[in-house]
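User: Please predict structures.

Assistant: First:
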Amino acid sequence: MGFDVGFVPYNPDGWGPPEAAAAPASLGGGSVSVPFAPFSRSDKLGRIADWTRNPPGPGAFAAARDTVFDFAGLEDSVGLASADDASFRLVDGKPPPRHPRFGPRWRFQQRPQLPQRRDEEVEARRREAEKERARRDRHWQQNRRTHHQFNRGGPSSSSAKSSVDIQPEWSVKEQIPFSSFSKLSFAVADQPEDLLVCGAVEFYDRAFDRVTPRAERRLERFKSRNFFKVTTTDDPVIRRLAENDTATVFATDTILAALMCAPRSVQSWDIVIQRVGNKLFFDKRDGSQLDLLTVNETAQEPLPEAKEDINSAHSLAVEATYVNQNFSQQVLLRNGEKVTFDEPNPFATEGEEAASVAYRYRRWKLDDETSLVARCEVHAVNTDPRGERQFLTINALNEFDPKVTGVDWRKKLETQRGAVLATELKNNANRLARWTAQALLAGADMMKLGYVSRLHPRDHYNHSILSVIGYKPRDFAAQINLNTANMWGIVKSIVDVCMKLGEGKYVLVKDPVKPQVRLYEVPNDAFENDYVEEPLPEEEQVRPFSEDVDATAQEMDAAAEAEATATTTGADGDAGKSVEATAA
């Protein structure tokens, strides 16, 4: 039997099939030689044959064979196909997109397959999904860091306590967010003018520039030298300058530095502002937080809350202040040679030994009507190779536990000094910025930073000097991204706000949680002895040392030289004296 080509209509009038072709005889009841695959009009047409694709499941081959090559009901479908040809229209010829699988179950259960051929649309959707997932991860991490920075420790944490008790009768005059401080800029017109220099300073000992962790020096204690933390209105020199109308705004370098570096602060602080006539006085309270140095203020991990813990925020602040004071006196030449200035130390009484410090009273002109006078401190003098005299500021960074910071100074200072400084800039950004601002205000030619560490992580009385590094203040300010124009812009904005207020007393408080400051109007007798405030809890009150306690501490210091077990007890009295001197 030969091959049946089927019925072919003949058109005698021209090319193509005739207009009315006769139906083949096979449609009447015979079988058609060409098979026809039935399909639904809702199905999308795909490729005829694709040998590169793998079936998504074990039953895919059977399903495909049953649906595509099923000739059941062929006679009915052939008759219906010719009737529906006129209504058929091709809508989409693309294969259906495959949905991506996510999750660990699909990842571990899928079988190894040959490289698949992917459509461009599927690839584009996969890339968009990856970008969206990465964006959500970054957003979550950023919110987590922000929440951890400003809410760590909860409301009961010491970092979340206000530095001053806000009284209900105080009224809020201004509320300034830190985001507005970052946009400020002000350039001081002229160089500052030195009005007066008081005190006496000693020369810096250059032998400390050669101190290394392998040749460390023990930190000594200077019990006989007194350190003064006098506020603005208690300074007799500033009182005299104010009576002579030398300026309209008066402050100290510590207070100005706190204002200039306010956006970097996390813990709460406060500044008392008094408007008297056309003059402004920026003061600090007795026992203010500005008298103590903060430790790990900008670190990610919070410090313990219990004050009896030697690594709590309060204990470390007292220890850092004690270390900083003793370090500033140990690195000096103690040969009796001092550099004196116009007047002696205005706070030391006759026969009292004051620490090596010089007070420079400098005046800046903010505008035609406003000028500022600030008392700035320098701690030592030095002679450069050309024989010219230089002013120095001396400060110390202290290491209390390498496991907390993650960097061991004794191992990294010689080989990775930059990593040590970068860690300190991350954990103590506000403290380093304040020291730099004070050096710039004082006009210091060099600022010396010492690295002081505990002899043992659990011994907070004995320390060692590991290294001393010198920086030029302007270069170091550029290194830590401290903009002088922005610093003066913050001060100028605060002065302008206070100049619009009436006469009276105000207090500027850093919010303990949010990055902002609030300006309160307070009674004129606030923060004075006759002003009754809410008393502090008994465990938070600092008790003054009596003469009997001091004598006992001296006996314990003498006994410590003979008995090694009494060293820690003897040092306890010395640390108490440092706290007393700081409060004074």
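Second:
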Amino acid sequence: MKIVTWNINGIRTFRGGIKKALDSLGADIICVQETKVTRDLLDERTAIVDGYNSYFSYSRGRSGYSGVATYCKDSATPFAAEEGLTGLLTNHEGAVGCYGDHTEFSSEELQLLDNEGRAVITQCQNKVQTVTVINVYCPRADPEKPERKQFKLQFYKLLQYRAEAILKDGSYVIVLGDVNTSHRPIDHCDPSDIDDFGENPGRKWLNGFLHSDKPEEDKNEEEPDEESEISETDPIHGGKFVDTFRYFHPTRTNAFTCWSTLTGARQTNYGTRIDYIFADCQLAKDQFLGADIMPEVEGSDHCPVWGQLSCPLLPSSKPPPICTRYLPEFAGKQQKLSRFLVKVDQKSVQSERRDVLPGSQEEEERRENLNPIRAGNVSGKKRVLTSDSVVPKGKKTKTVNTSSKPQGSLLSFFKPKLTNAVPPTEAPVRQCEKILSLDEMTPTQNSQKASTTRENVSSVADGLPEDTEPIFEGSTQMCTSSTTETCDKQVKTKHSTPQPSVGHSNSNKGASLVFWKSVLHGPPPPPSCKVHGEPCVLRTVKKEGPNMGKQFFVCARPQGHSSNPEARCNFFAWVEKGK
């Protein structure tokens, strides 16, 4: 049996066809992370692949985020499968079970930990005993969001409880996926650049989760591929699981699975190893034949990792209920309208209050829903929403328009415009002529028609485009002969269509070009870096702080170790203001 894990950074990585990509990996079980697909975006081409059966977990709080999936060949069809680690998402037969001790978690914490679509568990049968595969995409601890560190550690703890509970029940256990933590200094491109490398909470958790045979410096450098002896019952080195890659390659360096795409670090192999296949000690010792990384496979900022086992799997005659081929939208059955309607108890919704786990994605989504408009309202009124009006999970609050302006009629969009009746080049001139004729009338006639004239002038002014400046200011001022010429010139300048003239057109284009060049002068010319003498690239600070939005120049080469002459040098220069 061959098993593969790969963070694909979006299901669209398989642009050439999902079946072709899966077949190219040559594995019986393929676990992918960061699919970035939710249930409503899952299409049949992705869910139903000929020769495979698939199992998905989706993010329930944010679209295009997280998500994992496990594809099993029909020859390795599992007999049990479920989504999540807590069991709260399981309401069907064919579940894996064995959930471990949850006394350290509140019910709200458990629900939020499974709310981001980070785990799928499948269970297969071989000739000896069952093999359970836990496919996980562990959270990333964003340094700008300290609350996510606690969320990540809670997920680690929940994962360990579940894996050890299944192992205790008598099954072999494989935990694989993107763990988002490099374990040892050998798994990091530049560990000396990180303060207190070993004090990282994620690395401390890995130290307790994984079995450690002996200190790294005592290993034989002459034979890097020599298998390490492990003992499942050794109390000194703790841990019930083994990093299979390090089991077969204990001292291999520069073996990374993730690189930054922003800095082109894959070209210089300046990365980290954060994708793993963990197996319980007995399974690794008795059944694993090999494990390695696949850096030659591109398409994502991660590369696949594979593991080979000697035990063949016995396929189940029928996939478990959460298999995507049984989803109503893919099962070929007509759906009822009632399926899309959910009864909600409004009283319980309004009275519901709960303390959410720090850093959960649902909390962030809720804040966005509760405060959709950050700027002040024009009318001075702003609807204030409190946590008492929180809607059920997965539902967004409806933003109410509090503007006092009445809603317009649909018919107003079909009314003819005023400018259609009178050509825009003639209307103002005619109006001026009418006003001039008032001077020839008697005062009585003037007083009778003054109001009518003012109304006509205002109506014409209203009908002009926004960029036309009003010519008539004052209620009783009349155009004189001199102002008539000025009026005509202004109107003709703004509204009349000039006769085609090559010389005039070229001069206008030239003046326009000079104007736009003075306004949009483009980026400043890049300087050359001091080491390589090559043009630098322009970057912008996006991190919040005093320098946010400022631009700077750095060496254009990909990021790499300081000892690598082909990597980026340390050239740095701020862009001066006004350039």
